[in-house]
Each structure stands twice: as structure tokens, then as C-alpha cells.
Amino acid sequence: MMKPTIYDIAKKAGVSAATVSNVINERGRVGDKTRKKVLAIMDELQYRPNTAASVLKGKAAFTIGFFVPDMLNPVYMEYVKHAEERAQERGFSIMMCSTENDPVKERLQADVLRQKNVDGFIITSKFQNEELLREIEREQYPSVCIAHERPDFQFDSVSGNDWEAGIMAADYLFSLGHTNIAMIAEKDSVSSYGRIEGFKERFRKKEMKQPLIRYAEASIDQAKAMALNLLKQDDRPTAVFGGNDVLAVGIMQAARTLGLSIPEDISVIGLDDTFLCQIVSPQLTAIAMPVKKISYRAVDLLIEQIEKGGTLKSTDLFPPVVIERDSARKL
Amino acid sequence: MMKPTIYDIAKKAGVSAATVSNVINERGRVGDKTRKKVLAIMDELQYRPNTAASVLKGKAAFTIGFFVPDMLNPVYMEYVKHAEERAQERGFSIMMCSTENDPVKERLQADVLRQKNVDGFIITSKFQNEELLREIEREQYPSVCIAHERPDFQFDSVSGNDWEAGIMAADYLFSLGHTNIAMIAEKDSVSSYGRIEGFKERFRKKEMKQPLIRYAEASIDQAKAMALNLLKQDDRPTAVFGGNDVLAVGIMQAARTLGLSIPEDISVIGLDDTFLCQIVSPQLTAIAMPVKKISYRAVDLLIEQIEKGGTLKSTDLFPPVVIERDSARKL
DNA sequence: CTGAAAGCGCTAACAT
DNA sequence: ATGTTAGCGCTTTCAG
Questions:
Q1: Protein-to-nucleotide distance from the CA of B54 to the C1' of D6, whole angstroms
Q2: What pLDDT, on a 0 to 100 scale, did the predictor assign at position A312?
Q3: For the residues B273-278, what does the mean pLDDT come to?
């Protein structure tokens, strides 16, 4: 017994397929008893419209392509999680797609998803493939960038305010009396750049000597290695700012292997406020990015684009907030 | 300028659509120069076949529906991650879908995904909705269960050997000289049940008094609360086994708030070996489930079902292995 | 080796 | 208020 089609319903209800379609889509005028009858039969036969057919007719697929660069940093999983949650509420599904920051994969998967008629893209990090980005822009393919502004492109973007987060990190540490402060920042990342600039800005304003900044990939081990190096110096900083939580965890581990205790010997703070912060010990004080809000807004924006057609070119910036826990102390 | 269709290619190449279809699908006999010409034009016009159309014709959608129960336990994210990785290698995409262990959501989303013509399901935990499961079984909808055997259903399943993992946990702790051991186990979970039974089995075999077992949801806070209670007893255990890593982290936090140091005052071990183990301090000794292998195998099995049609009814069980780190010590 | 034609399930004018 | 019809882009016999 095959899955019932709209014709099976129509036949059984003694009406035409068009009428069934009309009741499904609540379009056109349909008599009240006709509607009820059709509805009853759909229910009885457990009818489910075939999305492929309506997509072929030009309707939406109610599916969003979601790109993540790498799963090493849990913040991306948190973005996916919340986006899926919101998408479900809005009647959309998420096709998840990890690109490993590889321009070839980006191109491949973007093509695959477009073949599959996903209605739009959410991009959680810088695509390496600028050509692809230009193409998406040109075709006005509905897309929004998360945590990753691209002033050079006509994309909607929604992020936490990285620059402000950098500032808050500096100010918070200053307020604790620290002056000899270092930062370990993520390499090659747009958001990282904002965070660094905000951070440095504050030192400049106070006419203090610029903080030491080291760069690492967003991996615990790399951060640990950089931090080890940093903390072995003669004039060891009293506080280290991790440009994201993963980096901060690496810093904590470095401190521990050097026998430095946190926060007594050294303060460390993170940025993002992923669940990592609550798992490490001591729990990590961090500048929190409103990840959930960002995801929700990105999904809503994208759906608006899909419904209205075309890009809105809005740039939403959410303010960060500091979450005090136990990894930083007053000097 | 619209996206080119197969007809555009056909016209420009001076052949029929059927021929173009043949070269795309490498079917039928096509002359060598015809093929080359068609290929060249496809490339030039950046032609991408529209999946909706071929799905409508009855071909595969190259898409897998992946159900996760909740994102609180990172092990599910690790399953998704690896499944997506493997799916991509095999030319499939993943539609991720979280069900929050809610039977209504399960039903809703399963219906949605079937409408969207996903080729099969991967289910990472017990569906609450048995009726749905029976339906999937009856329709022979390609499906495989991960980490979640259902002997009562005709589903393929691939898991780590939970029973053996429980045994290994007990044996490992015995080998360290512990005898007063407790376990905090996850409530209402099929895998948890196996883990518990294996664990108890070993005590029975040794004719020791049965271990204390407490139940909690897979959340750090709940585990912590249970552990707090457990560790305040007069006859405090010298080792606690967390039925999964999240639970183990909760136990560690409880120990810490009681001023007990790990592993000096108390040993704790986890199960799954998610990245949590490497983040906490001390790093967590754990029984490792081969999550990556499981995901890969599940994807491969599912694709085999999709290609061959119908279920295979195989039950793959991967052996766990203990990963020693720093959270347990010899008594 | 290649083409003509029918049809997958649904939608949207346009008729009635 | 409902039905007729054409067609979305592709695949697949079946002829030639």
C-alpha cells in the first residue's frame, strides 16, 4: 500500500485534487462541509503532503542550511542547538553541515544544499571561500551570518558585540586591580579581531603599556602551549584573558601544570560563556555572549528574508555581559 | 537569469534532455564526444540537478534524519558530529532534529522528515513513542538505533557494549583496591540499564555486598545533588562510578564542595569518554565508548539499508576500553 | 547511440 | 464553491 497522494484523498472525498490542495493551503474558497470531509479523510489515511512536489512547484522547502566551521569549539554546537530549537518552533528543519574551514568543502556543501533546495543559509563563521560568498550575495540567496560581521558584503549579520566584549574584559580586570595582563587570542578569526581591538583600546585610553597578545588556534592544546610560554616569563602577568572559552581552558591547564593556582597566583577569564565555564574548576569567570538570543534572531531574520525575498542588510549587535565566577580575584 | 535546467543544457548541446540525464547518471550508452560536450556545457552553465525533481521521480534524497534526545549530554553532539562527517564522505546530508525526549515532538518531527523525503533515520536514544517506532518498523523505513538496542524491535542497532562497560568499571576499581564503591546512574535509559547490570554482576560474582546505586537525570546539577548526599554518609565510598561523563562531572563537583580532593580522598571514574574528561581537573579516568566508530558504522549501515531496501537486523556491539587519567588512584 | 513522451505529486490560473 | 488543465525538473521505458 503506497503512501496516499492528494489524488487518493480527492477520490475518496469525491472532490478534485485542487480542492484538497486548497484546504491544505487554506487558499481559495472551500465549502465548510467539504473542508471538514477532506480533513477527516486526510486524517484517516494519514496523508502527508510530499514536500518534493511542492518544492518543485516553487514553494519553500522549510529547511535551513547551517554551516559550522569546526566542532572543536563548543560554542558552535551551542549555536546549532539553539538554532534548531528556534527553527523547529517556526516550522523549519536544519541541515547541519560542517566545513572545517576548508574552502573546497564550503563550495561543495553549499552547492549540495542548494540542489536540495534549502531555503537559506546560516553561516557561523568566516567562509574562506570569498568567491562563494560573492556568488551567494549576487544571487540574493537568503543568508545570515552569525557572530561574524562582513561589512564588505551585503549580508545580514547578528553577533555579540566583540569589540565591547574586549573592552569589558579589560575594564573588569582593571577593576580588580590588574595591570600586568596578557591575552591569548584566536588566530584568523573576524570576531577575534574585534575582541582584540576592544581590549587594546582600553589600555590605550588609560595610557598603559599595551598588553601582551599571543595567538593560537581554538584548541585547548595550542592555547596551553602558548600560555605555558607566557607564564614562564620573568615578569609573569597577574591575569590572562582568553579570547574564547576554549582558549581560557587551555590557559587554566597551563597554569595548573606550572603549579600556579587559580585565582590565587593568577586570574583567568574567558569569553563566550559556553557550558565549559561551569565544568572547569574553579568555574570560569567570563564575558558572556548571548548565544541563544543570537541564534534565535538569526533564524528569525533568515525566515523573514525567505518569506519576503531578498536580503534585509541589518546588522544586529547584542551586548555582552560579565558573568563572575571563581577564576579571577581582586589583587 | 534562472537556474539552468536539464533542458537548457540539452538545447545548448543540441541533444535531448534524456541524453543529458543519461550522462549525469552514467546510464545507458552515450557517445564519447556527446558526453564530453554535455559535460562541458554543464560546467559552463554551472548546472546543478534539482534534487526535488529526482526525488519526486523516486530517487534518493541523500539525506538522513538524525534524532537526538537532548543536548545536555555532550555525547550526543559527538555522535552528530561524527555522523555528519561520515555522511558527508558518503555524499549524504544530515537533518538534525532534537526531540527533548518528548513523544509528541518525536511524532511531529518524524512526520516532517518523512514528508521531506529523508531516506532514513538514525535514532540516538530511546524514542518514548513506541507507536511511532512500531510504525517505522512496519513500513520498513530505513532506520538504525545508536547506543540503544531494542531487542523488541526489528531495528538495526549499533552501540558500545554497555554491559561490558559496567563490568570494566567494576573490575578497574577492584584492581585499584576499592571495595566500598557507589554508582550514580542515569534514570530511564536503556544504555544505563546495561551499564548498571554489568556493574552489579561483578559484585555478585565476587560475592561482595552490592554497590550503592543512585539515580539522576543526565545533568551535572542533579548528579551533584545525589553525590552530595552519598558522600555525606558515615561509611563514605572510596570510589564513585558515574554512569556517564556528565554524571561523573557532577560527582567531582560534589566532592569539591565537600572539600574532598580527587583522587586522594575519593576516586571517580566516568563512562563515554567525551571531551569533558579532558577539560575537568583532574582529568577524568573513564571507560571509553568508541563514539566515532559507532557513528560511522551507523551511517554506513543506514546507507546500506537505503541502497538495498529494508532492514538488515544486525546488532553491532563495540567493546569499550578504559582510558586512565588522573581521577582514580590505587588504594 | 539518441530522442519522444509520459508521469512522479502538487499548485495555480482559469473555467465553470 | 469546485473542477480542468498545464507544468515545475527530472527519469525512464520504448522507439528509432
A1: 20
A2: 72
A3: 95
Q: B-side interface with A, Cβ within 8 Å? A: 48-53, 55-56, 61-63, 71, 74, 77, 80-81, 84-85, 88, 93-98, 105, 109, 111-117, 220, 249, 252-253, 256, 276, 278-281
DSSP letter assigned to residue B107: H
Nucleotides of D under 7 A from a protein CB: 1-5, 7-14
Considering only alpha carbons, which residue of chain B is nearest residue A116?
Answer: B51
Task: Give the mean model confidence (pLDDT) for residues A248-275.
Answer: 96
Concatenated DSSP letters of B238-292: SEEEESSHHHHHHHHHHHHHTT--TTTT-EEEEEE--THHHHSSSPPEEEEP-HH
d(CA B126, CA B122): 11
Is B279:B309 a contact under the CB 8 Å cutoff? no
Is the sign of the CA dihedral A50, A51, A53, A59 positive or negative? positive
Asked whether the predicted pLDDT for residue B124 surpasses 80, the reply is yes
Give A12-20's long-range contacts (Cβ < 8 A, gap of 24+).
A12/A41, A12/A45, A13/A37, A13/A38, A13/A41
Residue bearing the bigger pLDDT, B211 or A29: B211
DSSP readout, A165-188? HHHHHHHHHHHTT--SEEEEEESS
Task: Give which of B136, B80, B83 is closest to B107, Cα–Cα.
Answer: B136
CA distance B166 to B71: 24
Q: For residue B136, give the nearest of B316, B284, B279, B311 by alpha carbon.
A: B311
C-alpha–C-alpha distance, residues A32 and B212, integer Å:
63
Please state, as a whole number, how many other Cβ atoms lie within 10 Å of the Cβ of residue B202: 19
DSSP state at residue A318: E
Q: Which residues of A167-202 are buried (b: 16+ CB within 10 A; e: fewer)?
A: bbbbebbbebebeebbbbbbeebbbbbbbbebbbeb
Alpha-carbon span B302 to B6, nearest angstrom: 30
Of the candidates A60, A36, A52, the one whose C-alpha atom is nearest the C-alpha of residue A3 is A52
In chain A, what percentage of residues exceed pLDDT 90?
A: 80
pLDDT in tens, B50-109: 999 999 999 999 999 999 998 878 999 999 999 999 999 999 999 999 999 899 999 999
Q: What is the mean pLDDT of residues A113-140?
A: 92
For D13, nearest residue by CA–C1' is B18
- A294 and A159 in contact (C-beta within 8 Å)? yes
B16 C-beta less than 7 Å away from strand C: yes
The DSSP bridge partners found for residue B94 are: A96, B64
pLDDT band at B2 (very low <50, low <70, confident <90, very high): confident
DSSP 8-state class, residue A80: H
Å separating the CA of residue A40 from the C1' of nucleotide C13: 28
Residue A310: pLDDT over 70? no
CB B271 within 8 A of CB B286: yes
Question: Strand C: which positions are within 7 A of a protein CB?
Answer: 1-5, 7-14
- Hey, of B102, B112, B327, which one would you mutate to test binding to chain A, going by the most A CBs within 10 A of its CB? B112
Does a cis peptide bond (omega within 30 degrees of 0) precede residue A74? no
Residue B309 has pLDDT above 80, yes or no: no
Please answer whether residues A317 and A146 qualify as being in contact, where contact means their C-beta atoms are separated by less than 8 angstroms.
no
- Pairing mode, strands B239-242 and B267-272: parallel
Cα angle: B191, vertex B192, B197; to 5 degrees: 100
